[in-house]
Amino acid sequence: MRVITIYNKKGGTGKTSIATNVAANLAAAGYRVGMLDGDEQANTSTLTSPHRYGKPTLTHVICDAVPLREAMYQARRNLWIVPADMNLTRAVEYVHGQQDFEVLCDRIEELQRTLGTAPTPEQTQPWWQAKEVRLRDFDLVPTSDEEFRTPPSSLDFIIMDNPPNPNALTTAMLFAAQEVLIPVELEEFAYQGLVQMFEDITRKFRRRQQKMKIAGIIPMRVDHRGALAADYLISLWKAFPELTTRTIHTDKTISNAQAYHRVSFEEDRNSRGARELFDLSLWLAGWQGHVMGLETCKHCLAAREQALQTEEEE
Q1: Which domains are assigned to the chain?
Q2: Which helix (H) or strand (E) holds 81?
Q3: Which of 71, 219, 289, 292 qualifies as a cystine partner to 247, CB 3.0-4.6 A?
Q4: Can you tell me the distance from the alpha carbon of 154 to that of 242, in angstroms, rounded to the nearest whole number?
Q5: What is the value of pTM for the model shown?
Q6: pLDDT tens for each residue of 69-84
Q7: What Rg, from alpha-carbon coordinates, does the chain have?
């Protein structure tokens, strides 16, 4: 089971958009995915609609030692959410007051001991061997009331949506994760902020045997109408050539979907945003193919080539 946290010290970078879409897309592809909502605004938790959840929530998992499996609600087929609530500040205060930054490590280890194993899409799905896939061949299935309260018997991924601003719960999520995916907006201080963030992660893990893997840096809300968008992309690719991966362009489908408690794949799977996020999700799972209908952005390609050229010249 892979445990991935979506992290950026800066708020408003698209953490929730990445977390919800990646988790839902992996579920649509046949993976079994659990999500932890670490934001008291509970935007991730709204995916449970039209079902209603009560207790337990992530607060009870952290403060009252409720097993993670008991706090998982199946929002879509193969997608379980551990929701946030209005008392999530209590969880933050608990972690800080007890200095128990290992609390989610303990809960996840306990969860792993209770779960079985099941075949993954790599083993069972014919699309895994294909060079191209069509989004219309995948689906997200709503759950019945009974399924909503049915806990998982196995999981392939846990995706964690971090608080909008760093706090003690952020540290607990980082300590519990094996990998971190970093969404970043194209702005003047993107590079400087990433450098500081890497230093912060290194400092947190300097005395731990566990090492944090950076799964990727994801430029979000890329809009080439901005005069400086290409310059910022070039700076990112030049500074982090191996880590900067797929770009996610500005697309109203992503924000519209969130407003209606859906993900972009459900809102309009033919949109560029939906295709890019699905491509990102399958890439994260290790698939090396191409999503049909997703054309390479010539502006992003030109920026990447220029970054490589500049690096060679230097």
Answers
A1: 2-222+242-293 (3.40.50.300)
A2: strand 79-82
A3: 219
A4: 32
A5: 0.94
A6: 999 999 999 999 999 9
A7: 19
